[in-house]
Design brief:
- The structure is a homodimer.
- The first copy, chain A, is of the alpha/beta class.
- Chain A has a six-stranded parallel beta sheet with strand order 10-9-11-12-14-13, sandwiched between helices.
- The first copy, chain A, has 25 helices and 20 strands.
- The relative contact order of chain A is 0.09.
- The first copy, chain A, folds into three domains: 3-303, 3-Layer(aba) Sandwich (Rossmann fold), CATH 3.40.50; 348-520, Rossmann fold (3-Layer(aba) Sandwich); 535-652, Rossmann fold.
- Helix content of chain A is 42%, strand content 13%.
- The interface between A and B is large, with 105 and 105 residues.
Chain lengths: 654, 654
């Protein structure tokens, strides 16, 4: 270990961070200055990576969970030689078009393994990355050859550790014994409000020990010690490790270091100059030549390491052609078609149960489909077929994950599994508890990750559990998140197609909103409905003549609409099932008008709030539920809320 | 302690629970059967309460955090003699109109201290109840007389303890040294999916010790031990206590106890009969006479206790007339008017900062206004005036709360503070992180609690922090929650009124969406605007003649609309500020039409997704942001997204 060089790397991280933040007049110097030494040894010595191929499947992963410290990451990516992170990007830190965005954004540059900034989620995603590694290792490594064998590192601050999602993920990671997850805790005891003594005086080490982690301590500024601690972490194969590094926020800024003033605002011209003078930084955007030389030499080593792996991979491929075929399929990002379950008109099936059958078929066809539920395996219809094992420390090839009652971490872990590459992730809970995992769903959408969210018990038809468990605003609230695709199938047949659509999607998450109650499979007059549904809507029932009105319904309300239409004489009623309003609204007018003829009266019906349906119908022509529900048998609740076929028929007749 | 009687109470809890759940054919027998003994001693011996006055301010609070076990609570309320919980209610468990709803619902019956069911939130609300007790005790107790002196109990299961929100609240409670918070953990090691070994193997006791709690252990079925442990808990004044009680889920059901089958479904006729036989329950909805006799005797004691308190309270009132005046004001639920800050047209003030001044004025006038931020005190403008202290173990009279980076627990704790009575609670974070606290906001709305949510940095005009920190869907997503009132004031003057409106509201939460950036105070042509704004909208600028079009804008976009209107010649443009769309949409047509004349073209402008605005304008007439933002200076981000006065002017001119 070339400590002199590492010191120069740390110096360069500080130099780039001070100047980039100062130039942007925006940013968070506290972490990059405080943790520069860790960055130096991490990118210089510890990480098994190769900037020449940032997507090398067996690279170590590093997640900057404390994403506000983004200049830490950008500086190191640039110094290490990641081609995506140019000095120009760093000089345009926090400007539109720069890869050096305010917080690390997945997809902007190689080496950014996850979008971080919403605190606590980074380390939960790192947990998912570590899960993925164990799963792929179990599936692909052979007695003779090890193809998957890497570590997942994360850097957290006090903020991440206060968030509940990191607690959930920590307990999960400890339970699962994720020995290759190594988390550094930048313990500087300062947050925005001031000292952590204001709000955070727990014994973090003891808490992580309680989760079943190995906890180690050291100084942020002792390279030998960090190296030794990481070896110790790697030596413990059965437990994740938390390495607590005592540090000084904003280290190097003579007047602001060790204060909240260093956290989230530029140092200011005077303090920046003072810091640079104190540190011996000779110019602007300074990079020490020793740091460049060091990394140039390292790149040769990294290249060799990766080539060794590639040779091993080729040899493994020859020896294991079937595994290689799976590997390619897993990493293609494309789902393989499955023998979806077939239902008959008149079948009464809850869409959660139809969904379970579709999931089973897709899991059989796609060996990389993995996921589970937040302790609602049965109620969500989330179980995988019995021959697919349960993921655990004892069976890393198992694909069903018991996430525990931890909705938020579940979704964040799924983001991590998905980000790893090679796997497709799904997770499940009640739709009403989408609120618990919403921040992670937003990140799925922002990162364009096709995680599948199975959210069942999708309306007041949940019944007796009452308003806490009856979603009313949730469909609307999920539709408004950009890039989330919500599908609310209306019967078992639509559910199978919806699952297939979710699997086919590659650029963002899909929410499947499924019913608790049985729904009757209805005849579909559009012979092409399995294609048309991919536009978001199709015609279920055409009237004999030109329609007087169109009813748009989703999910269980399509059945209600058919019932109401049958109750109404003298009007030509067209019934449209619209499992995805967003998808339909994204279609060209010609496609929309084939389903909803322009100028025809439209009635909308959905067991949830009306917001968003006003685009299609007049307020009086929307049958919705704009209040919290009630506890009682579903039919009686619907009566109490005036949400019945009779009420819809009355609107039609008006 | 009459153990024979307590056993009969436990028997009666089991009897009522088995039959109520069986009759409803829905419910969760596992907890009431498993924890009946705790219920017996809690309601019979431990709780200082009086069913004759469920709202007695100095009663002990009990929150059933594991709300699915609702029959536990209902049985005990009925047995103890709470008049709101009749046998008829229990016999109509989970039917519309019954006070015995699926999950405990605040407001349905005295003795239900919080709506619970969404796991983990109950114990976080209990933390808030305990905070409120310490605050009121510090404010009102005198050397001579103790008026506020009660405990807060909660019952949690494995589910609550896996949720991140309970972890956040646990760390907060330990930090704050809430010695009068006593949490029972019904440790039955079974959840819906089966054994907790599937997902939850951490050392809970050690974790709570790490938080700074006292942790005690015992058996659910040993009255003497529970009594001793509670004494021990009470003996530790500086730490909250977790009492871990080993238990058997569904105890008494001979074939289902100790299995997941007992958790969440009726026992079934056969098992119910077998359980009743095994337990010696002679009939349906059986109540042991000894239980009734016992409680009848207890009620006399409780009445005396409460009368003693009342006498003390009267004596204290005479000795402390000023304190008594405050007490009455605090408990009235009504906010006192304040000298709101005054701004002048042309002032440039970020609404977060204007909000801080209004908050300061309101906090000066209302000594019961308390709250804080999730570590964003400065950025949110959440600080209270310097003479208002910081709440801590050392200063219970402090009113500013450092919640730590724990948005979800912050909101749940505020729910608890508000539920306690006597205080008004507010909390603050970035609007983008409303997602983190959303499940608690939903409970504020469902429980009709007027918690005030100060959510700043309310649009892409946040700028450099980028898409993770730029809300785009959040305004829409909050508006759809029933009973949430969202106010997005357009300048400093509106902000002061918005704060006053939030304080005046008594039946639900208010969200104040405030800007990071400076906004210019604009002239308001409606002379009555301070009244009209209470309808949700008012006219900022009237055209000379009959309007050709109306622009509806909210928040910072009102300034943009004024700018665009000024850029447009030849059209009579009316500009409307609509800080609360929900409030406006709830007005009678006559009021709406005074502001938006029927038949006139309407343009809507808001820096967020368009969903919901379609009610007022054609899709082409909505200037919105329907994608994630960008990192960059606010103005450049707005340019990049096409969200400018010029773009709005182009729509106007069309």
């Amino acid at each position: 270990m070339n400590i002199a060089a590492l010191e120069k790397i740390a110096l360069s991280v500080r130099a780039l961070s001070i100047d980039a933040i100062q130039k942007a007049n925006s940013g968070h110097p506290g972490l990059p200055l405080g943790a520069a030494e860790l960055g130096a040894i991490l990118y210089g010595e510890l990480l098994r990576h190769d900037p020449a191929d940032p997507h090398w499947p067996d690279r170590d992963r590093f997640v900057l969970s404390a994403g506000h410290g983004s200049m830490f990451l950008y500086s190191l990516l640039h110094l290490a030689g990641y081609p995506d992170m140019s000095l120009e990007d760093i000089k345009t830190f926090r400007q539109p078009g720069s890869r050096a965005a305010g917080h690390p954004e997945y997809g902007l540059a190689g080496g950014i393994e996850a979008t971080s900034g919403p605190l606590g989620q980074g380390v939960a995603m790192a947990t998912g990355l570590a899960v993925a590694e164990t799963m792929l290792a179990a599936r692909f490594n052979t007695a003779a050859r090890t193809i998957v064998d890497h570590y997942t590192y994360a850097l957290v601050g006090d903020g991440c550790l206060q968030e509940g999602v990191s607690a959930e993920a920590g307990s999960f990671a400890g339970h699962q014994g994720l020995g290759k997850l190594i988390v550094f805790y930048d313990s500087n005891r300062i947050t925005i409000d001031g000292s952590t003594d204001l709000a955070f005086t727990e014994d973090v080490a003891k808490r992580y020990e309680a989760y079943g982690w190995q906890v180690l301590r050291g100084s942020m500024y002792d390279f030998e010690e960090i190296s030794r601690l990481v070896s110790q972490a790697k030596g413990e194969a059965k437990k994740p490790s938390l390495i607590i590094l005592g540090s000084i926020i904003g280290k190097g800024a003579p007047n602001k270091q060790n204060t909240a003033g260093a956290h989230g605002a530029p140092l200011g011209a005077g303090e920046a100059a003072a810091a640079k003078q104190a540190l011996g930084i000779p110019g602007d955007f300074y990079i020490a030549p020793e740091a460049l030389d060091y990394f140039a030499a390292r790149r040769a080593v990294w290249k060799k390491n990766r080539e060794t792996w590639l040779a091993e991979f080729e040899a493994w491929s020859k020896e294991n052609p079937e595994k290689r075929k799976d590997w390619d399929a897993f990493h293609s990002g494309r789902a393989l078609p499955a023998a979806l379950p077939v239902f008959a008109v008149g079948d009464k099936v809850a869409t959660r149960n139809a969904g379970n059958r579709a999931l089973g078929a897709l899991a059989a066809a796609n060996g990389n489909l993995t996921g589970g539920s937040a302790d609602l395996t049965g109620p969500n219809g989330a179980a995988l077929p019995p021959d697919v094992g349960v993921y655990s420390a004892a069976d890393r090839a198992g694909r069903y994950i018991h996430f525990g009652i931890r909705e938020f971490a579940m979704a964040a872990v799924c983001n991590g599994i998905q980000l790893h590459g090679g796997l497709r992730a799904f997770c499940a809970t009640f739709l009403a508890f989408a609120d618990y995992l919403r921040p992670a769903l937003r990140l799925s959408a922002l990162m364009k990750q096709p995680v599948i969210y199975v959210l069942t018990h999708d309306s007041i038809f949940v019944g007796e559990d009452g308003p806490t468990h009856q979603p009313v605003e949730h469909l609307a609230s999920l539709r408004v998140i950009p890039n989330v695709r919500l599908l609310r199938p209306a019967d078992a047949e639509e559910t199978a197609e919806a699952w297939a659509m979710a699997m086919d999607r590659r650029d963002g998450p899909t929410v499947l909103a499924l019913s608790r109650q049985e729904l009757t499979v209805f005849p579909k007059e559009d012979p092409e409905w399995k294609n048309t549904i991919r536009t978001g809507a199709y015609i279920v029932k055409k009237p004999g003549g030109k329609p007087d009105l169109v009813i748009i319904a989703t999910g269980s309300e399509v059945g209600l609409a058919l019932e109401a239409a049958a109750m109404t004489a003298g009007k030509q009623v067209q019934v449209v099932s619209m499992p995805s309003r967003e998808l339909f609204e994204a279609q060209p007018a010609a496609i929309q008008e084939r389903i909803i003829p322009p100028g025809v009266r439209v009635i909308c019906c959905e067991a949830g709030v009306r917001s968003g349906w006003e685009r299609w119908a007049q307020p009086a022509d929307i049958l919705s539920i704009d209040r919290f529900g009630e506890s009682g048998p579903a039919g009686r609740v619907a009566e109490a809320l005036g949400f019945t076929a009779g009420a819809l028929a009355a609107i039609i007749s008006r």
